[in-house]
Design brief:
This protein is α/β, with parallel strands linked by helices. It contains 15 helices and 6 strands. About 45% of the residues lie in helices and about 10% in strands.
Length: about 300
């Protein structure tokens, strides 16, 4: 078994575009993996819950899940969830475990028994969704749960186009803000560089939109889950955006009631929102910086759809 000591993305000081800081990847250093564990590693608002649902459907072979999805597949890094209780619950699970994280792969222990799924989305679309998500956070509740009173301090949010422009220009590193421009491209570049490793799976949000059945079949094959194609076609209906919106009470990752409105979690799910909002100059600034930050092959894959 190969184990690598990861980089730890711990709590840091606030940066200009950072609203929240409520996770700590150091928890992974104490977590004990099992054979066939699945770790779903994504940047925020890139299709995390979607792929968690796909894994749940494939593992349980039914849309009638035994528990709410956030309990079956908890966010291990999230400080809102007490560590001891979280680890005890995961230790008691008898099904194949699939665990959520927003930590890049270089911040996780690497174990040959584990399959790591990294979900990517066009960074501008993810940034638009992140903006709306941040406006839906109950900051007072989050401060109470994390014991960090600074999180309760009211902040006047910028407009969406202002926020996107600042996001593109931000010089914050991944260590300072994982959801910054630098953090997003660090996460995706690191995963792209590992794409040929046998236990690393890359999933693109656009592929889920355009060919959900086909992507579910591909993921099932890579996870070595034996399920008939006809059955995947049936299960895929429960993973459509429409179906997940309708079942938000059991799917939205909000076990501690941090969201002000669960119905706003699944907002639109479409691609192209970021490009539509930006002015031509701002879009050109994004593309210019992206071309200096990531390899051409990654950008070709990332920007499609």
């Amino acid at each position: 078994m190969r184990m690598l000591r990861p980089r730890v993305y711990g709590l840091g000081v606030a940066k200009p575009i950072r609203y929240l800081d409520d996770g700590d990847s150091a928890r992974w250093l104490d977590f004990e993996f099992r054979d066939d564990d699945i770790v779903i590693s994504t940047r925020s608002k890139s299709g995390t819950t979607w792929v968690q649902m796909i894994c749940a459907l494939l593992i349980f072979d039914t849309p009638d899940l035994p528990r709410p999805l956030p309990e079956l597949s908890p966010w291990l890094d999230w400080l809102v969830l007490p560590k001891d209780e979280l680890f005890e619950d995961l230790g008691a699970q008898t099904h194949r475990r699939f665990i959520k994280t927003h930590t890049p792969l270089d911040g996780l222990p690497h174990d040959d028994r584990v399959t790591y799924i990294v979900v990517a989305r066009h960074p501008l679309d993810a940034a638009v969704s992140l903006y709306h998500q941040m406006l839906n956070i109950n900051r007072q509740r989050l401060a109470e749960l994390t014991g960090n009173p600074e999180l309760a301090q009211p902040k006047q949010p910028p407009t969406l186009d202002e926020w996107l422009a600042r996001w593109i220009e931000s010089e914050a590193t991944a260590q300072e803000d994982l959801d910054s421009f630098g953090g997003v491209f660090h996460h995706l570049t690191d995963a792209w560089n590992r794409k040929d490793e046998p236990n690393v799976v890359l999933v693109h949000y656009a592929d889920l939109l355009n060919d959900l059945d086909g992507e579910m079949k591909r993921i099932a094959g890579l996870l070595e889950i034996d399920v008939a194609n006809e059955r995947v076609d049936e299960l895929a209906d429960a993973a459509t955006f429409r179906s997940m919106q309708a079942n938000g009470d059991t799917l939205v990752p909000d076990p501690a009631a941090v969201l002000t409105d669960k119905n706003r979690f699944f907002r639109s799910g479409r691609s192209g929102a970021g490009s539509d909002i930006l002015s031509p100059d701002a879009l050109a600034a994004y593309l210019s910086r992206a071309s200096r930050t990531a390899s051409p092959d990654l950008l070709t894959w990332l920007h499609r759809g």
